[in-house]
């Protein structure tokens, strides 16, 4: 009997050891990506990444930017995600305590103007704010910029989502404050109030609802980011991209490794992959987005940046005023 018990305990110990090793191996060979990106965009990159790294099991969790930030913060003592993919730099800087420092091996290939000064942020594509127009619905209404969105004929037909829940929408808010304020964001709020009035109380809850709403003919025009609109052009949808004549902010969409990520080395490999020539060519040629590295020709369906009325923001001012501006926008919505 004693011998049987000893054999049972030895067998149990072996099973535990095997389970622990397999669990450790599974953890080592995994990568969990949190992203607000579209399936079309993230799946193509992950497909190529897995071909180059067949040993890594990739899990993709898609949610809105604000929801992802809340989740990373809630999990900070035991992170379940490894990387936050596709957010603007302001959002990442505002939550810098949640991210791990890592400088990509491809950092020197990134355009100087769009290479982050922060060691935990890596840009991977350029994303101008744009207007997306449904050519079937807009008819003879002229859309060349922000001012045209105040046309009474567009009341209730404009898609815009809450900038408190979306990084692309916050970029649009900053863009209109600077462009309609002639470089001084404090002077742009009168326009924001007038625009909200023309939304007729329709404020959407996600960035995807904007471009999908316009493409599905629920709205005539929307405020979005370039790659989302360009994808519909490629598929033959009745969509036009308009670069605001008053001025366009072009930001780098970025990624950051989550602090204390369980699969840190795999997260680093993904950052290096997305900034590699092969991935950037996919971004440029197949995903209809502007690559961020220097040695690639421009997209075939996007106009050159030189033809856009490019404007700049004061990043320090935006960072310092983010909370105040979002609160001011909330007050416009609530009538406070």
Structural overview:
The protein has 336 residues and is of the alpha/beta class. It is built from twelve helices and ten strands. It has helices at 2-28, 39-52, 65-74, 89-94, 135-138, 167-180, 189-199, 207-215, 226-234, 264-274, 277-285, 315-334; strands spanning 30-35, 57-62, 83-88, 99-100, 122-134, 158-159, 221-225, 239-242, 250-258, 290-291. β1, α2 (39-52) and β2 (57-62) form a beta-alpha-beta unit. The N and C termini lie far apart (79 Å).
Question: What labels would you give this structure?
Answer:
alpha/beta, 10-stranded mixed beta sheet, 16% strand
Give a quick summary of the entry.
The protein is an alpha/beta fold and 336 residues long. The protein is 43% helix and 16% strand. Strands 1, 2, 3, 4, 5, 6, 7, 8, 9 and 10 form a ten-stranded mixed β-sheet that branches.
Please compute the radius of gyration using only Cα atoms. Answer: 23 Å
Order of helices and strands: HEHEHEHEEHEHHHEHEEHHEH
Structural class per helix/strand content? alpha/beta
Beta-strand content bin: 15-25%
Q: Assign an overall shape.
A: globular
- Tell me, rounded to a whole number, the average pLDDT: 90
Q: Helical segment tally?
A: 12
Distance linking N and C termini: 79 Å
> Could you name the ranges where pLDDT drops below 50 across 5 or more consecutive residues?
1-26
The counted number of beta strands is 10
Sheet having the most strands: 10 strands, mixed
Helix content: 40-55%
């Amino acid at each position: 009997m004693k011998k049987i018990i000893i054999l049972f305990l030895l067998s149990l110990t072996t099973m535990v050891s095997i389970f622990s090793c397999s669990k450790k191996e599974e953890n080592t060979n995994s990568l969990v990506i949190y992203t607000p990106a579209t399936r079309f965009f993230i799946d193509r990159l992950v497909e190529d990444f897995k071909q180059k790294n067949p040993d890594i099991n990739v899990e993709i969790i898609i949610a809105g930017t604000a929801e992802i930030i809340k989740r990373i913060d809630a999990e900070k003592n035991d992170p379940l995600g490894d990387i936050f993919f596709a957010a603007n730099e302001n959002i990442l800087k505002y939550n810098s305590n949640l991210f791990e420092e890592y400088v990509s091996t491809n950092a020197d290939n990134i355009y100087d103007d769009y290479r982050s000064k922060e060691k935990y942020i890596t840009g991977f594509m350029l994303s101008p704010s744009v207007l997306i127009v449904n050519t079937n619905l807009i008819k003879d209404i002229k859309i060349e910029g922000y001012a045209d969105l105040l046309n009474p004929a567009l009341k209730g037909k404009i898609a815009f989502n809450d900038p408190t829940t979306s990084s692309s929408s916050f970029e649009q808010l900053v863009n209109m404050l600077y462009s309609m304020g002639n470089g001084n964001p404090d002077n742009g709020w009168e326009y924001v109030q007038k625009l909200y009035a023309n939304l007729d109380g329709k404020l959407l809850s996600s960035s995807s609802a904007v471009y999908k709403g316009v493409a599905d003919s629920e709205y005539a025009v929307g405020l979005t980011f370039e790659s989302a609109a360009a994808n519909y052009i490629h598929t033959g949808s009745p969509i036009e991209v308009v670069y605001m004549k008053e001025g366009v902010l072009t930001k780098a969409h970025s990624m950051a490794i989550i602090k204390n990520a369980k699969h840190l080395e795999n997260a680093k490999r993904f950052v290096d992959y997305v900034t590699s020539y092969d991935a950037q060519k996919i971004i440029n040629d197949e995903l209809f987005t502007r690559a961020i590295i220097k040695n690639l020709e421009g997209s075939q369906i996007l106009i050159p940046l030189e033809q856009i009325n490019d404007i700049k923001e004061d990043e320090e001012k935006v960072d310092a005023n983010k909370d105040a501006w979002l609160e001011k926008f909330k007050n416009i919505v609530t009538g406070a």
